[in-house]
Amino acid sequence: MHKRVLTLLGFALGAVTIAACSEKLDAGASCPLLCPQQAISLRDTTIDAIIVDTTIVGIPSIGNEGYLMLSSHGDTIDTRAIVRFDTLPQTYQKSLVDSTIVHIDTAMLVTPIAHIDSLKRPKVPITIEAYNVDTLAASDTVAAVLGSLFRPDRFLGSKTFAPESLKDTLQIPISTDSVLTRVLSGAPLRVGFRLVSSQGYDIRIGTGAVSRAVTLRIRASTDTAATPVNVTPLSRTPLDKPFISGPLADYTIVLKGQTPNPATLLAVGGIPSRRSFFRFDLPSRIVDSTTIVRASLLLTQVPNRRVDAKDTIYLYPSAILASPVVTDVATALGFLSPPGSFGLDSVAFFPGDTGVKSIEIVGLVRTWKAQPTTVSPRTLGLLSAVEGQVPAEVNFFSTRAPVGLRPRLRITYAPQTNYGLP
Amino acid sequence: MTQILAHVLRRGAATAAIVLVPLAVHAQSNLSSQGFGFPTGQLSSRAYGTGGSIAEIDPLSPVNPASLSLIPTRTLFFQIEPEFRNVSGQNGSDHTTTARYPVIFGAIPVGSNLIFSLGSSTLLDRTSSTSFKTTQALSATESVEMNTKYAIDGAMSDVRFGAAWTPSRWLRVGVGAHGITGHNLVTITQSFDDSLRFSTFTASRVLGFGGTALSGGIQLVSKSFVLAGSGRYGGPLNLHSEDTVLTSARVPNRFGASLAYVGIANSTIAIRTSRDNWSSLGTLGTSQLHPVDAWDTSVGADMAGPRLGDRLMFLRGGFRVRTLPFQAAGQNVSEKSITGGLGTAFAANRVIADLAVIRASRSANLSASEHAWTFSIGIAVRP
Please, how many CA atoms are within 13 Å of residue A170, restricted to the half-sphere of its CB? Predict the structure, then answer.
């Protein structure tokens, strides 16, 4: 009998002990009466912390765009896309047997495009024309030279698309004779795309750098047993410089629409694409001795209503990962942290908007705490999520603008306190 | 040491066989844990079962070093104390769970009438977590909703090296050298309703304690009564953060006395009172800290109960009233508790197990009250 009682007692002890394991930490219903602790008071200040700001035009460099920008806005903007097929196959497979191409039944440019929001579909049909822009000129990436090659005698083909037909891929037939000639001669085929529309419009074509690239699909036989040949973009020039020739497999050229870059303005996006650079000088008593809970880069936006004024453009603040030994701003802006890192989120802008805008950078500013500038430079890059892909440009006043319009930094911080003592 | 043990036990929670690992947690938003925390009383489970009335003659309670003389052989002792608390105020109630590891020590006899011990007990347990919401004005036109959480982990501990001597059958004396140690890990987290623009702020600091004290005790033993008294003389006490001394004070002096009737075989009926000069801690905190000198008085009995086989079961009961050391909102906090307990021995008296159940009511002249159930479980092993 007594063993049962002791066993029961043991279980009771165990149950009580186990029950105590389920911790319940939080309390506060009797606050503030029984809570002597106080929240740490925050302080807020706005300072002229930007000591250097500038805009660098031409980033990303040619061939490194996420998408190829094909724009047509009358006399305002005209951009073309160039795709190089510097190696064309001379055989195809039929019933698993290689055969030499002596005839081409169809040649199609399979052209992936970026998703088009239903609100941004063109109001009228658009036409995409393809031209042979192969040239022996050494300056084979110069816009003026290439632009002159978009002429009737180099016309390869075209296709008109109804607005609702703009899905994810466009099929553009081109001249089979032109392609066959180049297949047989071993010459490269370089295709220039041109958008033709009665109303201004932009379309984004995929590139090999980021997404699916344009492919040339050749059907060399009407026999259903013959496998179509898909040719992907490839650039062989400049010779022996693959780090340059690689990106030039597809790229964008600007024939019209290059905008100036006045000193009083900072610009992000646009044509050619540009990024802005900021260098900060923060008081050590704030950045090192307090905990910053909010850091807002305050920029006064200047309306840019040139094109796509009401379109939403997302701008990314990004940490510059280049060491301070990289003093060239353009080079430094090529070493940006991936979007979203350091807790830096994108901010939506309308190019045509105006007023003071706030970009939150607290995640980056916090990393500067107790770090010398030689280790963690107080710099920031600002770029468009669609840089080089759409012509929209967002402008802000720079530090060369009149006082009151210049960029500033608003800091909200928790000062050092002697917390913890009752 | 109790804190170290607590951390070790926490980490081993998943695998501990009998799950003796409740986490030490309690709310700060209460009456009992103001200031530097809740005074557990440095009572063993056995003494707790009698309301603390036998603390001066209980060898497992690190109160009177003279009582060490009652330990017959090498002994290790460990105690856990979960507490289930309900605090009611105008804004509602908080139900919290607390567990403490208030006493651990070992003792070893040297010769026939001398014994030494080394142990640690919790002097003030501050482990807590409090959350509240405020609105922070940033400018004339802007404010932000802010959630603040104070989490405090740790306690002020009393590490005692004690020795007791029994020069004659009617006299026992003892002395103790105390090191006041331990730390409070204070973590403050402020988060914001507007998490898009504001980033959560968390800061931690460790507040460490360092101090000394001496204690002494005496017991006068007759056939039916035991008169016992003890005292602690506090030395300097510093509060430091890293290598910087922030504040200084003195370890509270304490004295206590009890009279116990032991004329019934294996039984004790006792009354005890003690006074702690907690006010000496006043300069250890900010000007908002209001410690008060406090009496702790109890009456209770530890009676031989029924036998279960060859085991003698002890039945205990008691009543205790005391003032807690730190004021809440400028008001003294008093505690009344009714206690009960059981105790027995196992394994040829090599293992002694005690259980105490305490129902405590704490109040102040405020629109808040506190009630708690505490279970104190002590295990003494004689290897």
Answer: 29
Select from B197, B358, B365 the residue whose CB has the most chain A CBs within 10 Å, as the one to mutate to test that interface: B197
Q: How many separate domains does chain B show?
A: 1
pLDDT digits (tens, 9 = 90+) for B73-116: 999 999 999 889 898 887 788 888 877 889 999 999 998 889 99
Query: How large is the C-alpha radius of gyration of chain B?
Result: 22
Q: Which one of A38, A364, A421 would you mutate to disrupt binding with B, by most B Cβ within 10 Å of its Cβ?
A: A421
CATH number at residue B98: 2.40.160.60
**Judged by CB atoms within 8 Å, which residues 310-329 of B form the interface with A?**
311, 326, 328-329
CATH class of A44-59+261-414: mainly beta
Tell me the backbone φ, ψ of residue A242, rounded to 5 degrees.
-60, -30
B 20-49: CB under 8 A from A: 20-23, 25, 27-31, 34-36
pTM of the model: 0.76
B52 and B253 in contact (C-beta within 8 Å)?
no
DSSP A27: B
Q: Which domain holds residue B39?
A: 2-381
For A16, phi then psi, to 5°, come to: -65, -45
- The alpha-helical segments, DSSP class H, found in A103-218 are 143-147, 176-185
Q: Any CB–CB contact under 8 A between B309 and chain A?
A: yes
Q: Is residue B29 scored above 50 in pLDDT?
A: yes
Specify the 3-state DSSP secondary structure of B324.
Answer: coil
Q: What is the pLDDT of residues A214-244, one digit of tens each?
A: 999 999 988 888 899 999 999 998 888 888 8
Domain residue extents for chain A: 44-59+261-414, 77-256
